[in-house]
Amino acid sequence: MRIILSLRVNLVAHRFRLLALSSATFLVLPVRADENYFGYSYGSETLPKGKWELYSWTTGRLGKGTGSYSAFDLKQEVEYGVTDRFQIALEWNENHTYFTGGAGQESADSNTPVRRNRFSFVGNALELKYAFSSPYKDLVGIALFVEPEYALTDSPSGDKFLEWEIETRLLVQKNFLEDRLIAVLNLTNETEWERPRPSHGESFTTNFKPEITTGVTYRFASNWFLGLETRYATQLANANIRNQVDWAFSVGPALHYAVGRWWATLTWLPQVAGWHADGARSGSLDLNSHERNEIRLKIGFDF
Q: Residue 246's beta-bridge partner residues?
């Protein structure tokens, strides 16, 4: 009898240890591939083959050097895993711009009105992402991201423009502490060809927009990550690497939560330093091409 009782106790203890080990393993494994831990930086993971994901992005851009300024960029996106390494996505972009006191004139020409309250369809984009390695299986994750896009509205001012763009990103991701600590680096360049709409005989101008974003985040509780993001953005006019017209540096917190098939990420990026070629309009910040504050909320659903 004592032997049977001892065997039962040992069996229960063994099952409990297995359950604890399984729970601990579940907590340190990634919730899903291509989960967005940051608002502005991308990870190197891609969706598994045959999987879909829906995104909804809302970005608030607040504050210029004069007047009152607020703009909201809305993005709806659907992603599909073509293979375990390659995914594609389609975007639908919209924008609402509101300003008074000439705030929008800081980011456009003299034809921009002193006041504007406009909701606009912006354009569409196609995303292509290929992962060369995985941060969960290899020493470091590396991926290439390419996004051709067209736009019908200038985001800062809300003016009618025709823009053709192609954005390329090199994505690097490194995981530490059994995937509890995640660090990413994105090296980006956007080449754009733009002209007013209607053109009135004006030709397209070409600009380069390099950008460097970084992010570090830590899982401080089950399903919760808290981290920090940085972004350095600049613009080289007329596709001339010696013709830098502005730059802005922003840094702020990023909060991420995931449960089941849902996840959400909230990032606040205040501009802390900047410069514009027209110093009279920017001071110690670039309030021509950028804003004082940006807040981005991303919500995703896997299926």
A: 235, 276
The candidate with the shortest Cα–Cα distance to 185, out of 142, 129, 132, is 142
CA distance 154 to 97: 10
Contacts of 112 (CB under 8 A, 6+ apart): 104, 105, 157, 159
User: Which of these, 63, 66, 65, 43, lies nearest to 53 by C-alpha position?
Assistant: 43
**Residue in the structure block whose two tokens are 């680096």:** 185
Taking the model in full, what pTM does it have? Answer: 0.86
From 162, 159, 78, 92, select the one nearest 121 (Cα to Cα): 92
| Dist. CA 87–CA 148, nearest whole Å | 15
What does the angle CA 98 – CA 104 – CA 106 come to, to the nearest 5 degrees?
155
End-to-end CA separation in angstroms for the chain: 52
**Span 127-179, pLDDT tens digits:** 999 999 999 999 999 999 999 999 999 888 888 899 999 999 999 999 999 99
The count of other CB atoms within 10 Å of the CB of residue 50 is 10
Q: Among 122-131, 154-163, 274-283, 285-294, which is the least confidently predicted range?
A: 274-283
Query: What CA–CA distance (Å, rounded) separates 117 from 7?
Result: 75
Q: Which helix (H) or strand (E) holds 104?
A: none
List, in sequence order, the alpha helices (H) in 148-295. Answer: 279-282
